[in-house]
Specification:
The chain is an alpha/beta fold. The protein has helices at 2-26, 74-83, 85-94, 104-111, 113-120, 127-136, 144-164, 182-187, 191-217, 224-229, 232-235, 245-261, 362-393, and strands at 33-34, 37-43, 62-68, 97-101, 169-172, 220-222, 348-349. Helix content is 47%, strand content 8%.
Length: 394
């Protein structure tokens, strides 16, 4: 009977140990977490509104605050920012990245391309009507005055953003919205190709301004034009200025690449190279060795005085007396507490599963207790078996 009782206790101890051991080591591996990227999006309908490219930045794990909207030009966006300066300032200060995509409506209005696209959309399936409309509606070249107006507004937007935020500013250039379908182009006698080439020529003038302003303000200019041109049929809606869902994701990738390329910020060096070893600021820091104020003329040794150790920072007013003059001790700089580096977009924090479990947790204590009980149970079981065999032999 006693043998059976010990067997049951031993089995229960092993079961207890097996169950809680799984919990103890399960805590060793932390789940993958993502940091939400805070995006401030400045622009027109291409970058403002649901399902636009800012919402795809950082693997779609972000918070987007938008300024601008459908039909916005560079001038109207600047007016929006100055009219909502407090909201913009609060959002910009908390942003991880600011995207600026503005100028498409400036271009559509200056050249007449916007009106032409509105004319072509209803007749997209009528080649004869398309051919006539393309022949009758010629684009207007952009003037230097229009370019200069755009330059002034864009510079003001980027300068204002830079003063309100420490986040990187990603400036998108403009892409060509005219997609040349070979079959349709053949039906309209190559008029789509002609339109595409004219847009390309005028667009280069605007993109030159974008590159110039980006360089002068420190914004990071990304090439939306080449990105969309790599697969225009997949990235642009037919006879429209707006991207498809795939196009928006391709545009978002440009900002992802900028964030991924940013160098990891090293801990800032302390302005005092001695690591704060003196309460008074060092005017000419040449190193971490400091001479106590009265070290040049050490006090005479007093008879009967017991030598004692100098404190790390002896007060300037009452330095301790040492029986034997000693050279100034070189203090070791205190370890600086490194400042946390900014987390990149879509950064994943993973706790390695190879680290040892935390032995201070209650679950780990249960594991230790379970092992101890199992060991005691084995000894008790063995002793019981030994006494049983001894009785049988007697």
């Amino acid at each position: 009977m006693k043998s059976s009782r010990f067997s049951i206790i031993f089995a229960l101890v092993l079961l207890f140990n097996a169950v809680f051991a799984g919990f103890a080591f399960a805590a060793d591996t932390a789940p993958i977490t993502q940091k939400k990227v805070k995006v401030v999006a400045l622009g027109d309908s291409i970058s403002v509104g649901p399902s636009t490219f800012p919402y795809y930045i950082g693997e779609e794990c972000n918070e987007v605050t938008s300024f601008g909207g459908s039909g916005a030009t560079s001038a109207s966006l600047l007016g929006t920012l100055t009219g909502n300066v407090l909201n913009f300032s609060n959002s910009a200060k908390q942003a991880d990245v600011v995207t600026v995509n503005i100028g498409s409506n400036d271009f559509l209005g200056a050249t007449g391309l916007g009106a032409l696209l509105n004319t072509l959309k209803p007749i997209v399936n009528d080649p004869d009507a398309l051919k006539t409309a393309l022949a009758e509606n010629q684009l207007t070249p952009i003037t230097e005055e229009q370019l200069n107006t755009y330059r002034i507004s864009l510079t003001a937007i980027l300068t204002m953003t830079d003063t309100q935020s420490n986040a990187p500013i990603v400036l998108y250039n403009l892409y060509n919205p005219i997609v040349v379908n070979d079959q349709l182009d053949l039906a309209v006698d190559g008029k789509l190709t002609e339109l595409h080439n004219v847009v390309e020529q005028e667009l280069s003038k605007v993109n030159n301004v974008i590159s110039e302003v980006g360089g002068s303000t420190g914004a990071r200019v990304v090439d939306a034009k080449s990105t969309i041109a790599s697969n225009p049929a997949a990235f642009i809606l037919p006879l429209d200025i707006h991207p498809t869902a795939a196009g928006h994701k391709a545009l978002a990738k440009l900002t992802d690449n900028v964030l991924a390329s940013l160098p990891v910020q090293e801990p800032d060096e302390d302005l005092n190279p001695c690591g704060g070893c003196d309460e008074e600021p060092v005017e000419e820091p040449e190193g971490c060795t400091q001479t106590p104020p009265e070290e040049e003329e050490p006090p005479a040794e007093e008879p009967g005085e017991t030598p004692g150790e100098q404190p790390e920072n002896p007060p300037a007013e009452e330095p301790k007396e040492n029986p034997t003059p000693q050279p100034p001790a070189t203090e070791q700089p205190k370890a600086e507490t490194p400042k946390p580096a900014p987390v990149k977009a879509h950064a994943k924090v993973v706790t390695s599963g190879s680290e040892l479990p935390d032995t201070a947790t209650p679950i780990y204590n249960y594991l230790v207790i379970g092992l101890a009980l199992a060991f005691i149970g084995m000894i008790s079981f063995g002793m019981q078996q030994y006494h049983q065999k001894r009785k049988q032999s007697i």
